[in-house]
Amino acid sequence: MDARVNAHVERRTLLRAAVIGGSAAVFGGTLWRGAAHAAPAQPGTGPYGALAAPNANGIRLPAGFTSRVIARSGQTVTGTSYTWHNAPDGGACYADGTGWIYVSNSEINPSGGASAVRFSSTGTITSAYRILSGTRQNCAGGQTPWNTWLSCEEVSLGYVYETDPWGTSAAVQRPAMGRFKHEAAAVDPVRQVVYLTEDETNGRLYRFVPTTWGNLSSGTLQVLVAGTATSGSYTWTTIPDPDGSPTTTRTQVSGSKSFNGGEGCYYADDKVWFTTKGDNRVWQLNLLTNTYELAYDDSLVTSGTAPLTGVDNITGTSSGDLFVAEDGGNMEICVITPDDVIAPFLRIDGQSGSEITGPAFSPNGSRLYFSSQRGTSGSSSGGITYEVTGPFRS
């Protein structure tokens, strides 16, 4: 083991020990400012202003922001010999000394898996490599406080795989987290659980309670139980058979709440936000009060045209802003502010046969990574992964 790898292992061991010991002060590299999001967001003027004309990459951005192409499916990543995967999907960023790493899933079946791109402190690409192989239709996932990536299979009886963004340790299948059509995961270091979405028209919202925090090899899978309304209180009930066979996990618990096409999932500040594509909603769970409500619903927009349609992946920043990517719509990433204003942050022109996936911020919050899954071709082999740099508020 060389010095760089040894330092990486030591860093991960120290962080893991802190997390297992109950420290939850830092998650994702920033501290979260208390966010409101108390009512369904309405269109308004966003914090970054109007979108400019499309740049050379076909991306409309606010003033002060620039973009570059990081990788293209089927082509070698600049400065490396690694060929980027098809259909790039969910992603996350990890601090790597003075640089960082962006990981990205591949939503193809078979083969799937995930890859990573490593950056220096100046943003120069220094390497790219595979971190997960031999899986199926890896859609979204989630980042853990102990610096692993949870890659989720969006297939019937799919698994969660825990992977190493540095590519040093082999990926590990986590069957205790349930077998269903997994979409995204969000880790809550305060309650020491993992929230999981299910991409079915009658999907459920789950949480996994590990036997030992920081170790996902065993634990209890639970499902959210609530009424049929769009707001109210909820409880959690244990799933009797997490393997989902012969009875699917979503039909095992009477009274569990149905969600129409679970997609992205994000945790911060004692809240979980998740999206449902079937009804174009962003939901919010308040984990302190055990209540849920709508953070956005296009059918509840009271004036003008709903700016966000085809809700998909979701992430956030230390300022309390949520960034939601569109699957379809007009290929935008929209921002929802803590005062419940929603506005486009960027738009990709000329790629109507694609979807935006994998939004994730660099550890210092100055760069946003995401992909156009099918690019200009409309095919999984045409994926493009981008970086946007600019004055994101912190």
Automatic annotation (TrEMBL):
Pfam families: PD40, PhoX. Residues 372-383 have a biased composition (Low complexity). PROSITE patterns: TAT. Residues 372-394 are annotated as: Disordered. InterPro entries: PhoX (IPR008557), TAT_signal (IPR006311), WD40 (IPR011659). SUPFAM superfamilies: YWTD domain (SSF63825). This is Translocation protein TolB.
